[in-house]
């Protein structure tokens, strides 16, 4: 019984993380969500994030590369910014994206990770797209 409860709890947590990006999109009340929209979404708390931002393991994920292309750590490591977005009832997301023209040619590209460090969205030309399992 205890094992079943733990498995159920883990399953609920994983589904919460996977839906957080879509929850954010729903809170935005639009089919479109861009980086500039994050600060104005009701029910979302946005803060700057720090720490090592470039993750070759995440940037090289086949799904991410197919949507945003490849980025070189040497060229882009110093050109990244990050925001942490916490939703009142859905958990939090990290948005890691490029901010320097020498890396991205004037467009912001990056990815969105959930609390389990799973890529749940991508950023292309400042547009945020949630990935659906």
CA radius of gyration: 15 Å
The dominant shape is globular
Total number of distinct structural domains? 1
Largest sheet: 6 strands, antiparallel
Order of helices and strands: HEHHHEEHEEE
Oligomeric grouping of the chains? single chain
**Which strand order does the major sheet show?**
1-2-3-4-5-6
Task: Specify the structural class.
Answer: alpha+beta
Arithmetic mean of pLDDT = 75
The portion of residues assigned to helices is: 25-40%
Describe the structure.
With 133 residues, this protein is α+β, with helices and mostly antiparallel strands. The chain has one domain. It is 35% helix and 27% strand. It contains 5 helices and 6 strands, in the order αβαααββαβββ. A hairpin with a 2-residue loop joins β5 and β6. The protein is globular, with a radius of gyration of 15 Å. The N terminus is likely disordered.
């Amino acid at each position: 019984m205890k094992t079943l409860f733990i498995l159920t709890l883990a399953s609920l947590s994983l589904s919460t993380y996977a839906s957080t990006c879509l929850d954010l999109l729903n809170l935005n009340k639009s089919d479109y969500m861009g980086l500039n929209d994050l600060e104005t979404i009701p029910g979302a708390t946005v803060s700057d994030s720090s720490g090592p931002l470039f993750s070759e393991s995440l940037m090289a994920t086949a799904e991410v590369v197919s949507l945003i292309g490849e980025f070189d750590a040497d060229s882009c490591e110093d050109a990244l910014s990050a925001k942490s977005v916490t939703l009142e009832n859905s958990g939090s997301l990290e948005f890691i994206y490029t901010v320097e023209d020498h890396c991205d040619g004037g467009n912001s590209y990056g990815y969105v990770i959930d609390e389990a460090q799973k890529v749940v969205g991508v950023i292309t030309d400042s547009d945020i797209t949630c990935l659906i399992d």
